[in-house]
Inverse folding.
């Protein structure tokens, strides 16, 4: 195996060696890839909400709103991050909704929604950021039909570049822009393939 | 009248069932339009600057690949991943199998990865007794049909819903139903079980940042997420050309790849991974292994066509290509179809280059591919280079139907002979053979089109008179 | 695509490269080119020894044969004068293609020298001579096929600028305007089925608007499209942009027919 390694490196060196000069890394402006074509909004959250709706995401403001949404949608049994569950249960709006704090993979069908923490959102693209260190269960955030991520106002990033600069040292970061989708069959858009069919981002205001 | 075909791809296009051609044509055309709308809407002034910059970043990376590959290896190792190198596709398969066998893996789930198509990983593992399930909806359908992907982003571009519904019925996935939503839901239910049964998840990667070792996986369906939430072992098989220097460079590529491939601002899921799951996380891989694969990429790097290694597999060049639209992906007889494939496939074929030397001929050199490519690859120039290579190496299938050029070159460098032929043609109103180049070519021309009246020498006469008048 | 820095020429003395297609079939296009250039004040020289630009062999992959022809072109077109070509694709052969096939040749500097003074006609009129407006009137609804070799060059915008400056011309937008017509030189004979399908698609889009003229800056495209149209028995006049400009100038009384 170490043979493969040295072979590959020596072949690369051999391929590059005859080059008379090498292309330098271009020095491009930080905001070159920034997309600025959108209406004005009073704050980054409102831009996020606008962009999120464009990709059929569901932005909500406040946990009470989330409870109302779940009840209106007929959701009664789901997974909730143990660190959030007390706060959620304390809200009267959540009466009648059963929350489990462990995602039991042998009963994965029992959970029709999952509530976990978001590490942030990106306003520019309507994107939700999940990090492994702050996600209580990868499956709880993925397997149920509805996923609701709770985000703090402080974690609303303006754009893709800023979000990248705030990767930190997490080994697994996920960006989700809207619900899971496919257009494999005749180009027709269908949501909810393997991941959530409904992606809620709830601002904990 | 159907003209005779000289080239395999032309034949394939001629014989393609009408229905398939229509499906491919409509799919690629509408995706192209989405790309165009999204990129020019969002970057009305800078779309081309963005493409050119991204191209330079990739070119720079390739021209410093030894440094960046080493840096990526260090970063990944520091973050807790295990890094392997495979000089060939076979070696990559062996390494993956060994990792699985050592851990008693019986079943694996896999997300879409072009490099594993190159290495034929799935048949290799199946032979060794490991159950493999493709989880991308399109790839899943390809797998149950024992078919091949016809597009690098939309593997079943060539199939319509009725064919898919029949396959699902045959596989016991419910009664015949060709509603795309029903098809998708049935796949969801079926594959969900597979994820939970599997012991290993295999993925590719779209990018790897040398700086942090983070590999980026891009999907719309969320299947790669599932592969990495339900299983305990993650094996990522990645071509060595996937590197980019820094995390921040990803802001360029992520903004380009979704728009270029499908017209999305961002693809739904972007995963950035450089190690096994974090301590305390109940779900996901305890081990992450990265296999960097060469499989002739270093040969391409040493060739005149190294620019093709910039490719980020967005599929835009396929969608815009008029030849792809008529012929569909299977016409290219290789893992990579379309303009990118016409360059890459013959190069990756190594000694078997002559077998695929006709691919670079399947282009009118219209340049639409270069115009849409997010990393600005000069595909037409590369196709031309490979045509020259095919000619120099005497590849027969490349020259089929192309008139020989020796006579033409002789005439065109001898003005008196040239002018005489021009006038002779006028006298008898036929195309002199040396001009249109011998019989099959002239036939191929006239089987499709008429030739206008031959007027060789007429302009020269006029110009002579005109110059006299002026004096 | 024209990668070399072009010098805007000081003198209006030019060399005309008429192209092999005009030499063989389309003498009136070459004639119109001369008339238009002379109207613009140019002194047009036609080097008698010219034949072809070398593109057929270049595209066919026979670079050795093509270099032989390009070397002849360099012999014939010597000096410093701009070389003006009424064809986007032959011009691109001069300023781009030839550079590729001479990358490793000792006479690359000469090829570069020729490349840097090679101009497509409408590009030369607009960006070389600064012409913005063509006097005269041509009453016609025109479908302009922007040929592919003009991608990424100044030719497309220049041709459109000149055409739309002519009184009475209405430029028609048509479907999939950016798509290739299917000519592609040797491609048209070695891939006749695909080439035909591409051509028919283009014609379908063009005919949907029922234009008076199908125009282009490349007679290659028009040879192919026209050939399919003629074979199908339909009728639609094809004109090179130079011919339309010439017609306008004649109408304005600026030049004689
Ligand atoms: S060659 Fe360019 S356009 Fe084609 S798939 Fe690769 S990146 Fe996309």
């Amino acid at each position: 195996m170490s043979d493969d390694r040295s072979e590959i490196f020596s072949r690369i060196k051999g391929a590059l060696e005859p080059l008379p000069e090498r292309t330098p890394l271009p020095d491009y402006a930080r905001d070159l890839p920034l997309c600025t074509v959108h209406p004005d909004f009073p704050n980054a959250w409102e831009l996020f909400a606008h962009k999120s709706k464009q990709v059929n995401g569901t932005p909500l403001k406040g946990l009470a709103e989330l409870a109302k949404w779940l009840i209106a949608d007929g959701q009664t049994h789901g997974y909730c991050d143990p660190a959030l569950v007390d706060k959620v249960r304390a809200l009267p709006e959540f009466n009648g909704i059963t929350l489990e704090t462990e995602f039991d993979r042998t009963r994965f069908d029992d959970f029709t929604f999952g509530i976990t923490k978001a590490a942030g959102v990106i306003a520019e693209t309507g994107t939700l950021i999940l990090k492994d260190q702050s996600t209580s269960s990868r499956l709880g955030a993925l397997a149920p039909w509805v996923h609701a991520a709770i985000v703090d106002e402080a974690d609303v990033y303006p754009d893709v570049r800023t979000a990248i600069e705030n990767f930190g040292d997490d080994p697994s970061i996920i960006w989700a822009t809207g619900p899971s989708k496919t257009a494999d069959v005749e180009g027709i858009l269908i949501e909810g393939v393997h991941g959530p069919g409904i992606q809620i981002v709830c601002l904990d205001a | 009248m159907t003209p005779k075909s000289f080239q395999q791809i032309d034949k394939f296009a001629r014989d393609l069932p009408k229905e398939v051609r229509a499906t491919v044509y409509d799919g690629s055309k509408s995706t192209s339009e989405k790309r165009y709308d999204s990129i020019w809407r969002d970057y009305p002034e800078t779309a081309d600057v963005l493409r050119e910059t991204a191209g330079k970043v990739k070119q720079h990376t390739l021209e410093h690949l030894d440094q960046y590959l080493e840096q990526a290896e260090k970063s990944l190792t520091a973050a807790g991943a295990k890094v392997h190198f495979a000089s060939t596709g076979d070696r990559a398969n062996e390494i993956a199998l060994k990792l699985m066998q050592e851990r008693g893996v019986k079943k694996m789930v896999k997300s879409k990865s072009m490099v594993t198509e190159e290495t034929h990983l799935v048949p290799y593992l199946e032979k060794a007794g490991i159950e493999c399930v493709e989880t991308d909806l399109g790839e899943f359908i390809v797998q149950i049909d024992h078919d091949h992907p016809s597009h690098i982003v939309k593997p079943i571009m060539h199939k319509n819903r009725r064919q898919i519904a029949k396959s699902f019925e045959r596989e016991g996935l419910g009664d015949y139903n060709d509603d795309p939503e029903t098809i998708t839901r049935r796949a969801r239910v079926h594959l969900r079980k597979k994820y939970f049964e599997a012991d290993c998840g295999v993925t590719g990667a779209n990018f790897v940042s040398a700086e942090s070792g983070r590999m980026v996986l891009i999907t719309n369906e969320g299947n790669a997420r599932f592969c990495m939430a339900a299983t305990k072992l993650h094996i990522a098989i990645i071509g060595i050309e996937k590197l980019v220097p820094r995390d921040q460079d990803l802001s360029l590529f992520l903004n380009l790849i979704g728009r270029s491939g499908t017209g999305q601002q961002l693809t739904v899921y972007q995963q950035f991974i450089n190690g096994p799951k974090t301590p305390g996380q109940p779900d996901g891989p305890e081990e992450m292994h990265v296999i960097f694969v060469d499989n002739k990429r270093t040969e391409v790097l040493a060739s005149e066509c190294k620019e093709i290694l910039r490719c980020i597999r967005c599929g835009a060049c396929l969608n815009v290509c008029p030849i792809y639209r008529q012929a569909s992906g299977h016409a290219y007889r290789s893992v990579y179809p379309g303009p990118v494939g016409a360059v890459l496939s013959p190069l990756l074929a190594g000694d078997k280059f002559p077998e695929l030397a006709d691919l670079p001929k399947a282009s009118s050199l219209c340049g639409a591919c270069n115009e849409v490519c997010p990393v600005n690859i000069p595909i037409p120039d590369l196709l031309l280079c490979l045509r020259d290579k095919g000619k120099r190496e005497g590849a027969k299938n490349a020259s089929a139907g192309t008139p020989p050029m020796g006579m033409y070159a002789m005439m065109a460098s001898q003005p008196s002979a040239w002018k005489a032929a021009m006038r002779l043609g006028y006298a008898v109103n036929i195309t002199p053979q040396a001009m249109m180049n011998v019989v099959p070519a002239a036939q191929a021309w006239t089987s499709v089109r008429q030739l206008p009246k031959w007027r060789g020498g007429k302009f020269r006469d006029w110009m002579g008179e005109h110059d006299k008048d002026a004096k | 695509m024209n990668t070399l820095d072009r010098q805007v020429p000081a003198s209006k003395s030019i060399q005309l490269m008429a192209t092999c297609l005009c030499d063989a079939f389309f003498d009136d296009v070459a004639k119109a080119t001369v008339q238009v250039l002379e109207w613009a004040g140019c002194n047009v020289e036609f080097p008698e020894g010219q034949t072809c630009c070398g593109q057929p062999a270049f595209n066919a992959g026979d670079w050795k044969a093509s270099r032989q022809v390009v070397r002849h072109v360099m012999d014939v077109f010597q000096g410093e004068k701009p070389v003006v070509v009424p064809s986007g694709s032959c011009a691109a052969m001069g300023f781009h293609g030839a550079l590729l096939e001479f990358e490793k040749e000792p006479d690359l500097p000469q090829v570069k020298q020729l490349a840097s003074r090679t101009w497509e006609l409408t590009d030369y009129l607009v960006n070389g001579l600064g012409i913005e407006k063509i006097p005269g009137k041509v009453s016609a609804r025109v479908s302009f096929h922007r040929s592919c070799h003009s991608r990424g060059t100044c030719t497309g915008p220049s041709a459109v600028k000149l055409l739309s400056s002519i009184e009475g011309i209405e430029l028609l937008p048509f479907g999939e305007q950016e798509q290739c017509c299917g000519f592609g030189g040797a491609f048209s004979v070695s891939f006749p089925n695909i080439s035909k399908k591409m051509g028919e698609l283009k014609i379908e889009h063009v005919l949907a608007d029922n234009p008076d003229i199908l125009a282009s800056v490349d007679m290659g495209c028009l040879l192919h499209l026209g050939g399919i149209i003629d074979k199908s028995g339909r009728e639609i006049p094809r004109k090179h942009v130079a011919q339309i400009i010439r017609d306008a100038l004649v109408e304005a009384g600026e030049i004689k027919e």
Remarks:
- The two ends of chain C are 35 Å apart (CA to CA).
- Strands of chain C lie at 13-16, 43-45, 83-85, 118-120, 137-145, 167-171, 213-216, 238-240.
- The mean pLDDT of chain C is 93.
- Residues 89 and 149 of chain C are 5 Å apart (CA to CA).
